[in-house]
Amino acid sequence: MYSYEDRVQAVQLYLKLGKRIKATIRQLGYPTKNSLKAWHREYEQCHDLRTGYVRAAPRYSAEQKQAAVDHYLSHDRCAAATLRALGFPSRGTLAAWIDELCPEIGKRLVGRVAGSVPKSLAVKRAAVIELCAREESARVVAQKTGVSRPMLYNWKNQLLGREVPASMKRKKKPAPDHERAELERQVESLRLDIRKLQIEHDILKKANELVKKGTGIDPQLLSNREKTMLVDALKQTYPLPELLPVLRLARSSYFYHRARLLVADRHAGARRVIADIFECNHRCYGYRRIRAALSRQQVFISEKVVRRLMRQEGLAAATTRRRRYGSYRGEISPAPENLINRDFHAAAPNQKWLTDITEFQLPAGKVYLSPVIDCFDGLVVSWSISTRPDAELVNTMLDSAIESVADSDERPVVHSDRGAHYRWPGWLSRMRDARLVRSMSRKGCSPDNAACEGFFGRLKTELFYPRDWRTTTIDQFIEILDSYIRWYSATRVAVCRASSGMH
């Protein structure tokens, strides 16, 4: 990319400026910082920038080459001995040095000195016998015989064969009987421990399947009835004498509870009815509403029995966790007076209305709900659902609510927070034309609209939080939400009235 003259000029200017890289590059307009460093390094090494690199010094000197070849020739031409004694080089490098310094020998690394007298058969046999006896090491035997160690093993393979071991030493004596007995006892103990751990593992799995307990539950905390169910589920795999001690269940207790389990369940019909009511009402009824619904179907059982049956069937309504309250107090702009003042009780319908907007975050997107709640019975007077929290969302909801009281002289108080939705001209004109009374909470004080916030909390606890919405589209969720609100107004609130004595 750059000529030889350009590189020389750059290095000379670099040295002239006191090795200031940025000043050199700024003045010349080239090269990069790394290139300038490399050109200067080449200049210092060879004072010439034509080659571009400097040949590295050889790794081994001529004296090292000669020493390695001399050691090889003086030690039975054994390459392994030379490499082990000197620590260098590799076998291929040593062969190249021998070919270079002693071309008459050639590249092949032989096992004996050239010109040495071949050993007789008697000498070979004596060396092999001494090797197999293992009184001394193979290296010592090879040195005494005057051959290399590989040559000694070649003699053994020729005379005895490769399958015969090179050592005839007596094997270690077997362990005495008492040591063998101790090892067998330890093996049996380990086998019993493994079986006990396997039993405990299977008990935890069955506890998760049958009594709906987590896999980390302590089996000792289970009731005797639940332990009996586990024993019955595992007695085909493990005998009773192994299961009962692990669960710490007495044999008499096991047969007592087993006999009770075999007796027909007198609440079998009530179990089915409770399960049907629970499933048909979005799995959000507790034992009080379940009992009220049973009373309407002429099934009369106590609350304790309902709670026990629901616990045994694993029917638990979703609940919310308590959150810390936090709010911001302060007035930033004129607003209507708080006429409700946290008094959410009404003597008749259409006296006090509450409204607000809540958001549902789905994997497919966001959905917004704006309802009007009647303080008299918690009925949802009207609602609108949209994917955008705009003026159309609240205006549509208000228009529908106004239509419900258009034929009467009722003019309810409409209470909301201080959001911009309830200060837009469209909202104000509709409120003025329908002669509705406005009321607003204090700034950042959600308890002033607690009844509406409570409706949102029940809605999300019963419908939104317990379900997985990853495969649900926006349209499907809007349809489900609309169906829930219709059920809430027509069925759920009616059951609440029945349970509380309201007419």
From TrEMBL:
Residues 345-503 form the Integrase catalytic domain. The keyword Iron does not apply. GO terms for biological process: DNA integration. GO terms for molecular function: nucleic acid binding. Signal peptide: none annotated. Keywords: Coiled coil. Residues 180-207 form a coiled coil. It holds the Pfam family HTH_21. InterPro entries: Homeodomain-like_sf (IPR009057), HTH-like_dom (IPR025948), Integrase_cat-core (IPR001584), RNaseH-like_sf (IPR012337), RNaseH_sf (IPR036397), Transpos_IS3 (IPR048020), Transposase_IS3/IS150/IS904 (IPR050900). PANTHER family: TRANSPOSASE INSF FOR INSERTION SEQUENCE IS3B-RELATED, TRANSPOSASE INSO FOR INSERTION SEQUENCE ELEMENT IS911B-RELATED. This is Integrase catalytic region. It comes from Caballeronia sordidicola (Burkholderia sordidicola).
